[in-house]
């Protein structure tokens, strides 16, 4: 049935430093942005020291700063609760706390921390943001999906941001770049990988600011959950209000 790791806070602005929800069904995690992705991968890294990581996202998310990394909680990191993980941060020059794990750097920190435990890296992006440094990775193009997902071997962590399926139109609005069939079949391939044990963890981010707002990204999420055969949808706003 799944469980809420971080209760749904509403269809609020996500930004790089806020997480509005985190939901889990076995080894599938769904969230509004990928701040929590690294935390979701911890058990997979522990159980599969030769795992690969496959990142599908409009952005690389691999910004790395030594200033961030010096504050990485190395000694007790694997035992952090989600609340402790999200609260990790450090003081900046403006007397405010900078969250350590953000939507643009969580993967860069993961690479720095765990590169020796990751067997293989694969990326499919739109070339946005800071690309990973000091690792070699396979680069996938959109036309290689979903068929290429059935060809994966070994064990993989799969990191999917739904903004990969969107692009900015001449109107300035974000719209879907791919058909419903393509997106649903993409998720069916992920389901096959989960069932076979090739995908040991799947993290899915909605990224509403980068993917047509909450309405647009929830339409794509429905296609993804249908393909994954997962019963999940966000509460209606009225339901959230009644629960407060």
UniProtKB/TrEMBL annotation:
Pfam families: UPF0489 (PF12640). InterPro entries: UPF0489. This is UPF0489 domain-containing protein. It comes from Maridesulfovibrio ferrireducens. The lineage of its organism: Bacteria, Pseudomonadati, Thermodesulfobacteriota, Desulfovibrionia, Desulfovibrionales.
């Amino acid at each position: 049935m799944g469980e809420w790791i971080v209760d749904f806070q509403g269809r609020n602005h996500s930004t790089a430093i806020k997480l509005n929800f985190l939901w889990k069904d076995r080894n599938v995690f769904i969230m509004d942005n990928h701040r929590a992705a690294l935390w979701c991968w911890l058990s997979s890294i522990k159980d599969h020291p030769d795992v690969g990581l496959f990142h599908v996202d409009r952005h690389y998310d691999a910004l790395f700063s030594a200033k961030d990394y010096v504050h990485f909680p190395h000694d007790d990191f694997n035992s952090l609760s989600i609340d402790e993980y999200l609260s990790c941060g450090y003081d900046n020059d403006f007397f405010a706390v900078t969250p350590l794990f953000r939507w643009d750097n969580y993967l860069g920190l993961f690479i720095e921390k765990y590169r020796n435990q990751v067997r293989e890296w694969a990326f499919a992006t739109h070339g946005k943001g800071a690309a990973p440094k000091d690792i070699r990775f396979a680069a996938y193009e959109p036309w290689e999906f979903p068929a290429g997902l059935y060809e994966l071997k070994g064990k993989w962590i799969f990191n999917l941001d739904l903004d990969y399926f969107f692009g900015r139109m001449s109107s300035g609005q974000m719209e879907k770049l791919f058909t419903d069939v393509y997106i649903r079949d993409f998720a069916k391939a992920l389901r096959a990988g989960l069932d076979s044990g090739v995908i040991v963890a799947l993290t899915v981010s909605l990224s509403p600011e980068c993917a047509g707002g909450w309405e647009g990204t929830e339409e794509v999420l429905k296609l993804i959950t249908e393909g994954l055969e997962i019963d999940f949808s966000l509460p209606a706003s009225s339901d959230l209000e009644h629960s407060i």
